[in-house]
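sorry to bug you again but im stuck and you know this stuff better than me. theres a chain ive been looking at and ive put its sequence and its fold in C-alpha cell form underneath. id like you to explain what the C-alpha cell line says about the fold, in plain words if possible. anything you notice is useful, everything is just below.
___
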Amino acid sequence: MARAPFEMADMRVAPGTRQQIDVPVARLYTHAPLYIPVEIVHGRQAGPVLLVCGGIHGDEINGVEIVRRLL
C-alpha cells in the first residue's frame, strides 16, 4: 500500500520529498496576510513525526541557525 502524502495548510508533500510552504497565520492591521515559512521533509519510510522550530522570538538567532544546519 502506498503511503499517503503529508498534508498541511491545504498543501500535500509526497513521501520521499521535501517542500517549503507558507502557512497563513494572521492578517496585519493593514489586512496584509502574515505567513510562517515551514520546511516539510517527508521521509520515504513510515515513522514518527518530529517538529523542530526556531526563531519564535525576535531576538532568538541561535535556534534559526541550528534548524538550518539540521535540515
The mean pLDDT is 89.
